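Internal QA ticket QA-208
Title: Verify multi-chain structure generation after dependency bump
Assignee: T.L.

Test input:
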Amino acid sequence: MIEAENLVKQYAHVRAVDGVSFHVARGEVFGLLGPNGAGKSTTIRMMMDILRPDGGRILLKGHPVGEASKAHIGYLPEERGLYKNYQLLECLVYLAVLKGMPRAVAKERALALLERVDLGEYAKRKTKELSKGMNQKAQFLASIVHDPELLILDEPFQGLDPVNTELLKSILLEEQARGKTVILSTHDMNQVEAMCNRILLINHGRVVLYGALDEIKARYAEHAVAVECDGLPERLPGVRQTRSVNHGYELLLEESVTPQAVLRSLVETGVSIRRFEVAMPPLEQIFISVVEGVQ
Amino acid sequence: MKAVWTVAAQEVVVNVRRPGFIVMTILFPALGLIALLIGSLFGGSVGQALERELGGADKPTGYVDLSGLLSAELPQYEGRFAAYPSEGAARADLLAEKIDTYLVVPVDFLANGNVQVYGIRGGFSTMTSADRDRIQPFLADHLLTGRIDPEIQARASGGLNIQPVTLTSDGEVSSESAFNWLGDFVLPYAFSLLFLITVFTTSGYLLESVSEEKEGRIVEILLSSISPTQLLAGKILGLGAVGLLQVFIWLGSAVALVALATAAFALVGAIRFTLGALVLFVVYYLLGYLLYATLMAAAGSLGTTQRESQQLGSIFSLIAVIPWMLISVVFSNPNATIAIVLSYIPLTAPVMMILRLGFAQVPPMQIAISLVLLIIGLVISLWAGAKVFRMGILMYGKRPGLRQLWLAFRQA
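Actual output:
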């Protein structure tokens, strides 16, 4: 769907993006991650043709991005707002018409989407009269109202309660099911784990992690299992270290031992086991270790 | 190009419904109407015209001749003037409102020309009827009838038609006719004021709309749909149309007001602007608007808040009013050095040239130089302004310093 090759962006004294390459396939939910100031926003702005790269290129469906590609992309920037004195519907329609959608179609779709997120009755209200949460939802709608093929969302769930977060997530997953591609930039690793197929982690303008989420997690996995049970025998064969974590334990295994062997010996001890799984490090931990490791 | 029109149309829709715009647009015709009404109450023929319109002149003006100099009542004044044998009779009719006012031509009229005018409402209504333009011909006719040649009498009561002629320094009759209050002073003054007001309200709206989009963080969403240049062009076109709409409403209502008073106010005759001068007005108006709109948009994109942007923009507004502050100099000598210099500086040229073109004939060479410089200035400001706009509009946080501005400017 979209492909970046060796992107470079140089500001006065800082190289904000330094040789970043990645591609996002159609129908994916792709995570674009990185600490503050890593170059995510610059990368996104280059994808949107708001900034021009100093090196490299970006292809959308095989064509370099430009004015023509903007209509195919829906963008929710991190710094966002709506016209305070416009009616909600008017605002959404205007933004969709700017993307090239016929006014009548835009109006119909905007109304349907407003209903979908429980803002139907606010269609004629000025956006400044809406609560912060409503504004967040409206801004999200502004990025999808013109029915784009690619969605680039920067912290889409910022400031939303869990109910509304779920609502927007379900809309995103529906869009994905309709073949839409989503690029999600967020600091909320739980959302990334829940939604993304593949991720790109950049730091100081360079790629530090790139690939399928499962593979990355497997790469960073220690040889360990996570167990939830009532009490643990002091010694288990093949376990070299035991760590207490929330509601349970993490057992670091000796090289030669398989998780199945450990499970068998656990069962033999007679403790009641509620959960047993091969431990995967949370993405958050990988994020922190990678970013701190670089520094 | 479609995006440009979308932005322009949106700017028109949003701005014409601003309370500020509606008030301003209505205010001027309303003020004009009030001025006309007041003028009609004070002033000569306009007053009569309106008075007839309003039915006030249905009642004749009474007169009492104590001097014995006036002839018998002349038929051409029948219905408009009514003779009374005594002041008492006239006063009774005045109080009964059969007449509006009455004149008393006293015994010593020949010696000092005094005429008393009596009215009951005082103030304006008495003064209207007392107006020289009505009474003078009446008295002249009644004094002279039968005493002199009727043709001479007609001239004496019909008044003068003054035709001023200006000689150039080498004794030729100048092609520009001499001073005419309305054409030579009021119109250039009004046109330059019109220019200042519409250009500043519309470019002020432009600044506001740019900084609103920046401050409200809408701009990045917009730029994900269209280019900064399209956004800028759409805004300049849309607000230009809003400004023109305002001008048309004003001009239209001015024409309507003139039509209302047309019987008296020979305005059309007084406008001595040639077609050429009018074309130049329009050219200066459009170029001036484009120049200021670009600068204001750049200012709007630089400030972090509207207030900050407005402070930046006010620098340009101050420069543009300079010619207006020098209006007395320009008026007394439209070809003074300072006036010539200011009509070469692009920021002051539009206002200065509109003033000078109204006040006097400007050498074609000067117009050419001024236009060329203005166009060069406009091209530079469009180029630089678009750059500043591209760069400034996404700079949140601190307002860029001059150094930062320069660095970014070289890159933008």
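Spot checks passed. The first helix of chain A runs from residue 40 to 47.
Status: verified.
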